[in-house]
Amino acid sequence: MHTIIHPLNQSRHSLSAEATSLAHFRKPSYDCREQPDAVKLVVYVPGVDPNSVEIEAHAPDLIITARKSHFVRVNWQALHLERAQRDYQLRLRLGHGLDYRSLQAELHEGVLTVVLPKRVPANGSARLPRVA
Length: 132
Fold this sequence. Notes:
By secondary structure, the protein is mainly beta. It has one helix at 12-23; strands at 25-26, 29-34, 38-44, 48-58, 61-68, 87-93, 104-108, 111-117.
């Protein structure tokens, strides 16, 4: 028998609403690589138009929503394609060390590339002091 333990700070209503909203999306395949001065994220979203991509950044979290263009065929029949035609949504917790305001994104043939530069330390230099 499986037991589900819900955290105390969330109500059942918000959990069911979140599960319902996630049922409308599917998680795309992606690759995340750290570079010396940035983090590069490659997300595979075939069938998505550049105008239908939304990127939201909330401090440590990055949310990418990519919506497909849905159309009904002339000879439409129910083929249970509803799951394959769902829109994409990717939620990642990348941390506070990135400059989300300076992110750059490009979509080319179903491949979304997002580059997030790293923040420069408050003192302005990224070098460590030399120890003699």
